[in-house]
């Protein structure tokens, strides 16, 4: 066997993962991605192992609901043929391995830096030295934007090559937000510290990264979360989706100059995040998700408030959404702007909303369900056009869907049982994987433990890791003035990417 | 047109009339109160993920506290978080809440530069720089200007260019990769200029304190005019802190 097939949130002995020669490793993983839209790579990373580098590749099979794990051991500075030559969806992973360990991929199209981590292999390369793509021509000009942008937003550098007002090419340089989180997961030994780290990976996806971490940790400690815990987590994930999608619709209205939509969607987000505050004391749900316990059990009163909130929200939401999607001045800016074709989306391995807007049925809630998604029988919202309109429409539909899910979930009021928290220890010499469909898309956390159950590697993958390239492709041949609306329609994470 | 008016009408009144006296809904965790109950202090300090609790006597440093509330769950008789969101100050020492103290956190008028009320009391334009921020404080700073909190009514606004700004609001623990850009942005702001640190990541590094990916040397070069604790900050904490800073006189 060249791989081991496991489910979401499963822990296995590290020795159970077959170790292949690099050439069979390459052949197996490239060939399992041939059925492009039902298989995709959820994580591919390396970590130091006995003076060499151990590579672990995780390919999800959406039809069989499994994840196929394989591994290979290579010299850190080995010269290797790349996966990317056969499938572009691997490009970012191999750049990351190259950046961290100095591994050379001889036929990789562009081994550029990913995030300039503090522990990178080549420390002489600094964040100011990013090698941008250039086109020599008298007709073309370059526009550099960032790292600091015009609004209250995270930093990243965008380099446009333009022909007049038209964008020919955009390259996005990230890394400014790098805080060394993966290393801190190893250094901070207390569970609460690690949970806090997970909550601070991306502050707009607190529940998503939080659930990814606690599910993984509980699996490592062989703890089975009961239905009440799973219920709270599922509700938190869906409320987060409603809140952020609503805020994004507001921001998209701002970017096309539709002030009423901007104000109304903006104020509709407030009661949703205020609900998190009523529930757990924090508007962005920090402190809510905990391994093996819930400090803030859902009470009958809280459930009642939630029902009321959704009823009030829905009425005003439908009204403004109907107005927004019938307004010619909004539609003219949304439709056929920032198109990512189905071929492009599949080729670069996009996930989450960015995949579903281009007709790819990729959603962890249906392909690898966790928590109460087994019961919800989730059917992903799919759009075909891949433009700003598709991304706006998808948000609207997903909000409707999430409202229905939350209503369904709160039919069943939990007992509010007292829990003391998780007391077990992580299994030694093990590997665990956790996939969560956050509002942005698929989040993957992986952990490897040593012989005493201590973490030796923690790997985080935010959906933005793949989807930034979709943003860069979307703006090609668009007016540069449409960049803000294109960018906002994806609303990708800088800190989730930079870690 | 009529549709738009109807939508406007349906929103009702959304703004908070008095931001200095507004009540926050639910169980907001604001300024803690520490009782004199005798407990195992070492055990208490050990709980905290960011080492915000020191012992003998027990103190909580709001510049480090993530407001997760785990200490109050473990020692409910010892620590209580009140809903007092007015916890911003310009005096780093005042962020440390002492055992037995139940006084509001206020600005220290002695430390406010006199040009602040002279120039900025009616209008303050700020440039925000996220230097490793996780987008939670950024979301809340954006919320300060929305129709609910409407900070713009006090003449306090965020602007796009440092050239148009009177000060800088820093979020995030300040990464090595952002250190140079932060300095360039600060240098581009015309004097006199103020510095506000928003969120515990900016104030102390938060959970990232001690990470080798940070470079916090910028902070040791300048006087900080306002510390706004929170993870993330609450819009009311920020607005009240800034109002106090520009209105309070020595």
UniProtKB/TrEMBL annotation, chain A:
<dbReference type="InterPro" id="IPR001135">
    <property type="entry name" value="NADH_Q_OxRdtase_suD"/>
</dbReference>
<dbReference type="InterPro" id="IPR052197">
    <property type="entry name" value="ComplexI_49kDa-like"/>
</dbReference>
<dbReference type="Pfam" id="PF00346">
    <property type="entry name" value="Complex1_49kDa"/>
</dbReference>
<protein>
    <recommendedName>
        <fullName>NADH-quinone oxidoreductase subunit D domain-containing protein</fullName>
    </recommendedName>
</protein>
<dbReference type="GO" id="GO:0048038">
    <property type="term" value="F:quinone binding"/>
</dbReference>
<dbReference type="GO" id="GO:0051287">
    <property type="term" value="F:NAD binding"/>
</dbReference>
<dbReference type="InterPro" id="IPR037232">
    <property type="entry name" value="NADH_quin_OxRdtase_su_C/D-like"/>
</dbReference>
<dbReference type="GO" id="GO:0016651">
    <property type="term" value="F:oxidoreductase activity, acting on NAD(P)H"/>
</dbReference>
<dbReference type="InterPro" id="IPR029014">
    <property type="entry name" value="NiFe-Hase_large"/>
</dbReference>
<keyword id="KW-0560">Oxidoreductase</keyword>
<feature type="domain" description="NADH-quinone oxidoreductase subunit D">
    <location>
        <begin position="255"/>
        <end position="418"/>
    </location>
</feature>
TrEMBL record, chain B:
<dbReference type="GO" id="GO:0046872">
    <property type="term" value="F:metal ion binding"/>
</dbReference>
<dbReference type="InterPro" id="IPR017896">
    <property type="entry name" value="4Fe4S_Fe-S-bd"/>
</dbReference>
<comment type="similarity">
    <text>Belongs to the complex I 20 kDa subunit family.</text>
</comment>
<keyword id="KW-0004">4Fe-4S</keyword>
<keyword id="KW-0830">Ubiquinone</keyword>
<feature type="domain" description="4Fe-4S ferredoxin-type">
    <location>
        <begin position="56"/>
        <end position="84"/>
    </location>
</feature>
<keyword id="KW-0411">Iron-sulfur</keyword>
<dbReference type="InterPro" id="IPR052375">
    <property type="entry name" value="Complex_I_20kDa-like"/>
</dbReference>
<dbReference type="GO" id="GO:0051539">
    <property type="term" value="F:4 iron, 4 sulfur cluster binding"/>
</dbReference>
<dbReference type="InterPro" id="IPR006137">
    <property type="entry name" value="NADH_UbQ_OxRdtase-like_20kDa"/>
</dbReference>
<dbReference type="Pfam" id="PF01058">
    <property type="entry name" value="Oxidored_q6"/>
</dbReference>
<keyword id="KW-0479">Metal-binding</keyword>
<protein>
    <submittedName>
        <fullName>NADH:ubiquinone oxidoreductase</fullName>
    </submittedName>
</protein>
<keyword id="KW-0408">Iron</keyword>
